[in-house]
Amino acid sequence: MIDRTNLFVDTMQTLGLGAHPQSLIDGQLQDGTGATITLVDPFTEAPLTQYPDAGETRANAACEAAAIAQIAWSKSMSAAARGQIMQDIARAVLDHVAPLATLESLVAGKPIRDCRIEVAKVAEMFAYYAGWADKLHGEVIPVPSGHLNYTLREPLGVVFQITPWNAPIFTAGWQIAPAIATGNGVVIKPSELTPVTTVALVKIAENAGLPKGLVNVLCGLGPTTGQAAIEHKAVRKVIFVGSPETGRRVAIAAASALKPAVLELGGKSANIVFDDANLKHACLGAQAAIFSGAGQSCVAGSRLLVHQSVHAQMIDMLSEGMNAITLGDPLDDATEIGPISNARQFAHVSGMITSARADGADVRSRDATPDTGYFVAPTVLNGLKNNANAAQTEIFGPVVTAIPFADEQEAIALANDTQFGLAGAVWTSDVGRAHRMADAVRAGTFWINSYKAIHVSSPFGGSLNSGFGRSSGTDALMEYTSAKSVWLDATPIPKIAFGYVS
User: Which position among 264, 336, 394, 479 bears the catalytic label?
Assistant: First the structure.
């Protein structure tokens, strides 16, 4: 039996951290000044450690450190040099895959094999944006007045980023890399439930050459630490990844301070299967879409829309397949699904299943789950309409609502009958239909005969309750810069003598 508390402390120290979470401000690990926060192992349900909320004083110090470091980063260092440091960071992250993945698995409850992949993707993020650091060109505009008019892309200054508990290190890299590539300073607040891998990532980056103070990590609560950072005068933009409810509060707080925001929120994405699809392929895709990561993904295919002629067959295949999925200790390489990340979310997911059953759903669930931990078995909710609560509310767990449709137009109507607009997919052998669906379904990301493929080079984001703005690809470079228009009057200066022009 692994002593998980000792493993936590040993891994923290391997990564240059203390025995409990601390904020990283201006290169120094610092305890907070506020209320005590407890980290719980989602597999054992036992406390791992405690730490104090960073609080307003630490938040202000982080913002001030970022403001000072940002000037040197953007003004005193060439863009090419910044890119080289980011390449060095990418290599350093790859050198620390094992301890970073272990720490992520312990705290977030994610299967260790998934964590290794996500850490490697973080390295890829820094490498990708490193290549963009010296390629942020403006343009020359042929204005009709005869002026020479050109534009510059300038960094915003300091940005404040808030990241969630479901993918802590992945979303940290996703946000930090484009921000510093464009010359900004960063203050980042990971979820108070999963703060440690973000601190470890930035510590590794500093050891690889990132100037201290350029990226500062605040370990603490939103209403205290987060609110103070949003209000700080150095912060020029707020980026939030998380639930629509919290995102709304963050957006209001940012707007009150006259600061723009990028919101990457939830989804209720439609995974659409037509009768001409390869059903085995579609079933495997549907399992990955909703059950991987225990369904704790904003793009999860949580509404499975299946043509009525193959609906029953598809549900039987999905129900049979989910019994072969391995649930267990996230630190075990054989585990495919770990526990829900925290007790509050576990209660929400469990409550949604109970509510769906009361609403008349045919609830199909796998046979057994581990005896301890916040485990929810992979579950299919069949027999509900699209207006049911379970089909409209983001469950954020391994639970899919299966709904039949009659034809293409009904599939589109059902897919768009939601307050979200994040992702979607279609499974079909008809190329024309595939592109019609991609055009008609409201989504920031849409897959054809696949699901959940994302990459740092492609834009990501949504609309409506899924948020606004884009957080990857070249679109992210625009989110982290502002355009400056420069005008030069190129006409000759007239000679003036004794009150007349010669």
Answer: 264
